[in-house]
Design a protein that fits this description.
By secondary structure, the protein is an alpha/beta fold. It is built from 6 helices and 10 strands; from the N terminus they run βββαββαβαααβαβββ. α3 packs parallel to α5. The chain starts with 5 loop residues before the first strand and ends in a 12-residue tail after the last strand. Bound molecules: adenosine-5'-triphosphate and magnesium ion.
């Protein structure tokens, strides 16, 4: 097996919201590193800072301190235009609440981001593996929540991103659909070698991860390698 190469390296990462009496420290000095091609699952109670962490790695919010290296490049010192380039080229982001464009069809929602990539996946093939091909010409309001979530995942995957960030990707889905979505992520990870960070409340999902991070009150309280990850199909909860 190839030697492991650090892909994301976070050092002393800090973030607060508000000032004075309302000041709230959300990330209180996070240190971790994630290797290229790993599936990393981040667990932690509500309010512990998981989404904030993901937003910082995704360059959607600014840090107050520390550094975030992705593929050797420190996001915290990038100019806005370079940060935009990073988001467009390197990153797939699956939001907790889909954020699909209501006036575009399922296929168009995916095509929009395919155009941002130098080496996008084939849109029709992806629609088929997402089980969305028959629904491709419908609008988001005409499909189920699970199908909207698949579309949101398709939109992130079609770029063939180096880094895929997923905030509660199965939070609103039933058991069967959740497992299908996780299997899809596993497939993409194996086929294209993208690095994946999944934030979830579901501790069972941690069994499919190479690395498990546990956050509490803005600090990492567990950072463990899982030597024998379980296939997504074998997960149970
Ligand atoms: N824009 C903001 N302004 C002020 N406070 C915020 C903001 N965003 C998040 N917070 C606060 O920061 C803390 C961490 O929020 P975050 O969304 O990162 O938690 P989380 O771990 O993702 O929680 P959940 O599991 O409920 O999604 C919370 O106390 C939240 O209220
Ligand atoms: Mg959250």
């Amino acid at each position: 097996m190839a030697t492991k190469q650090t892909y994301v390296q976070v050092k002393g990462l800090k973030k607060h919201y508000g000032d004075g009496d309302a000041r709230l420290t959300v990330l209180d000095g996070i240190d971790t590193s994630i290797n290229r091609g790993e599936i990393c699952v981040m667990l932690g109670p509500s309010g512990s800072g998981k989404s904030t962490f993901l937003n910082l790695i995704g360059g959607l919010e600014d840090a107050d301190g520390g550094s975030i290296m992705v593929d050797g490049c420190d996001l915290t010192v990038l100019k806005p235009t370079d940060l935009g380039k990073y988001r467009r080229r390197e990153l797939g982001f699956v939001f907790q609440f889909y954020n699909l464009v209501p006036d575009l069809t399922i296929k168009e929602n995916i095509e929009v981001t395919a155009h941002l990539s130098k080496n996008p996946l084939n849109v029709d093939d992806l629609l088929r593996s997402l089980g969305l091909y028959e629904h491709r010409n419908k609008f988001p309001r005409q499909v189920s929540g699970g199908q909207q979530q698949r579309c949101a995942i398709g939109r992130a995957l079609v770029k063939n991103p180096g880094l895929l960030l997923c905030d509660e990707p199965t939070g609103a889905l039933d058991y069967k659909t959740s497992k299908e979505i996780l299997q899809l992520m596993e497939d993409v990870n194996r086929t294209y070698g993208c690095t994946i960070i999944i934030v979830t409340h579901n501790a069972a999902i941690a069994r499919m991860a190479n690395r498990v991070l546990r956050l509490r009150d803005g600090r990492i309280v567990e950072d463990e390698l899982n030597e024998s990850p379980v296939a997504a199909a074998e997960l149970d909860w």
